[in-house]
Specification:
By secondary structure, the chain is an alpha/beta fold. It is built from 15 helices and 15 strands. Helix 3 runs parallel beside helix 4, helix 8 packs parallel to helix 10 and helix 8 crosses helix 13.
């Protein structure tokens, strides 16, 4: 007979772990935020391997912080239903949430995964881990590593994740700090690249925006310039817009010259080599790609660079971008839509987003029969003391 965290007893027989197949992944659920979008990608990847239940936990106002009005490109691809995925929303009330966790984490659950974003309200994770362990499931906390995040926010997770069977973070320094503070009795801390948002250069004095537009498409250029002209004089002083667009005649250059912020716009009309394209993506704070095809060099290079990228499209989601968290959607016929998406992309300029394959690799690790066996060699934890 087992004791529940609230003191009541549970008489369910614990199923041998070898017969357990289900996964439970809990974390932010809003598709308007980077944390919520990342959890979606983890769940989507896990669902290709094992039955998975997603528990959305959005406490306070944190779930409304982030992308607000600019739709996510990755989220636009996630609208299709997956028969192996159940989606549930956790109550905000602590007692009701504990009851819901007990109902949703059953004796068929092999592994319970909690997603943590340093700085958000992660107190629910301790409750989640207690219920999962009571059910006999393995427990893992995956924690996002991001640049310029204070050490205090990271270390505030120590008490939250102490009961986990394993912790996976994105950055080796974060892993070392957590390992040292968790002590010898705490879980082993490992790393995985899918959980890292670092790797791009630090904040720049001047942000370069590079836009790739179709040849001679004056209408699309006019909408882009209108969106850029909507930026205030004070803010645009630190921005440079580079438009890569093949053209003939004077129509395209004249549009640029007549724009309000023309002194901040540069038009590139010649073909770009692969090396130059990689350099453009690497040095840009944000990219804009119009109606990219599946074989788009510009978009694939953007994904490889991990840069925040605005995709200009029609009402239908483009074929590219599945699994790329750094993608944003904008309507190329509406300058206001482009302006909003570009503003959000610039706020994400310090982040390097993982490529879609990273979610597959992380899912394989989470679904492994033994987390300890899969994690051997992934990261050499710091020597624990205490």
């Amino acid at each position: 007979m087992l004791q529940r965290p609230d003191g009541s007893e549970r008489i369910d027989a614990i199923k041998p772990k070898g017969t357990r197949t289900a996964m439970v992944v809990a974390g932010p659920g809003s598709s308007l935020t980077i944390p919520g979008i990342i959890v979606s990608q983890i769940v989507q990847a896990v669902a290709q391997i094992a039955p998975v239940t997603r528990i959305e936990v959005d406490l306070g106002s944190d779930h409304m912080a982030g992308l607000h009005r600019a739709p996510s490109l990755a989220a636009a691809h996630d609208v299709t239903k997956n028969h192996h995925t159940a989606r549930l929303r956790a109550p905000n009330n602590v007692r009701f949430r504990a009851q819901a966790f007990r109902e949703w984490i059953g004796i068929d659950t092999r592994t319970a995964v909690a997603y943590a974003w340093p700085g958000m309200d992660n107190r629910w994770i301790k409750q989640f881990l207690q219920v999962a362990q009571l059910s006999g499931a393995s427990t893992i906390v995956v924690c996002q590593s991001r640049p310029n995040s204070s050490r205090s926010k990271l270390l505030s997770l120590v008490d939250v994740v102490h009961q986990a069977g394993a912790v996976i973070v994105g950055d080796a320094d974060d892993a070392q700090q957590l390992s040292l503070n968790l002590g010898a009795s705490g879980p082993t801390v490992q790393t995985h690249r899918a959980l890292s948002l670092g790797g791009r250069s630090s904040r720049k004095a001047v942000h370069q925006i590079t836009a790739f537009l179709p040849k001679n498409n004056a209408g699309m250029l006019a909408n882009l310039l209108a969106a850029f002209d909507g930026i205030s004089d004070a803010w645009v002083a630190n921005l440079r817009l580079q438009v890569v667009m093949r053209y003939t005649g004077r129509v395209i250059p004249d549009l640029v010259e007549r724009s309000y912020h023309a002194e901040h716009v540069r038009l590139v009309g010649e073909d770009i080599s692969s090396i130059d394209l990689e350099q453009l993506c690497a040095t840009s704070s944000a990219l804009i790609v119009a109606d990219p095809a599946l074989d788009s060099r510009a978009f694939s290079t953007a994904v490889d660079s991990g840069v925040a990228t605005v995709v200009l499209a029609t009402l239908e989601p483009p074929k590219v971008g599945r699994g790329y968290v750094g993608g944003l959607l904008a309507d190329h016929d509406r300058p206001a839509s482009i302006n909003v998406a570009l503003s959000h992309a610039l706020r994400l300029a310090d982040l390097r987003f993982p490529d879609p394959q990273a979610w597959v690799e992380l899912a394989q690790r989470l679904c492994a029969g033994s987390i300890d066996e899969r994690l051997v060699g992934a990261y050499e934890p710091a020597t624990k003391t205490g």
